[in-house]
């Protein structure tokens, strides 16, 4: 099974291995947000109630998670391409477990998110950001977004199996991506938000993930991060389970 998963993962990774610059191009938006907006809104740190000395340091976990959100959402486009080319149908009738198909896509997602998280952390380091707890802080900034990306990627695959076409999938992506970011504490603490946005952010998975990273790196001994960790783990478990269920439904429909 592991051999099959690895070979199917390489099928996704090969285009990136042949053209590594595509890794940078695919995260260009995240880099722009970090560099441009991080400097553009640096004056926010002077506002009363803003606890960070550097707005770039405040934004970094948000940008890494935004990158994970985009990678996860775009994962479904690969599934649609496989559907339209007949590749997925051949996989489903072959002696390959449905879980292997899902895990290979998620392993590709994990690899890409890991590389791009490291790049974003290095860029922020060059901009003067120093992570709490050094190496362990960097590891946290990599692992938590990967877990979140797995949840989003699973939901994206499920959506692709329903829409079966690029256009509806792209519409769903555009509808979900930026609203999820702006209706969270990604760019502003909840205390400084309008009350209605602050309320919505509390039921936003993006905000759970960002809050988890910030809570652990600011006061890990208080265990205030535990509720966010539990909710995130439930979110990824339900998402992967729903993705498996969607594959079962699709397999019975062909």
From TrEMBL:
Spans through the membrane: 21-43, 55-77, 106-127, 133-157, 169-188, 225-250
Domain ABC transmembrane type-2 per the UniProt entry, residue ranges: 21-253
One Pfam assignment: ABC2_membrane
Keywords in alphabetical order: Cell membrane, Membrane, Transmembrane, Transmembrane helix, Transport
Membership in a protein family: Belongs to the ABC-2 integral membrane protein family.
Superkingdom, taxonomy of origin: Bacteria
Gene Ontology MF term list: ABC-type transporter activity
Nuclease among keywords: no
Biological classification of the source: Bacteria, Bacillati, Bacillota, Clostridia, Eubacteriales
InterPro entries membership: ABC2_TM, ABC2_TM_bact-type, ABC_2_transport, Nod_factor_ABC_transporter
UniProt-annotated location(s): Cell membrane; Membrane
Organism the protein comes from: Clostridium sulfidigenes
GO CC aspect terms: ATP-binding cassette (ABC) transporter complex
Protein name: Transport permease protein
Protein's membrane topology: Multi-pass membrane protein
Keyword Transmembrane helix: yes
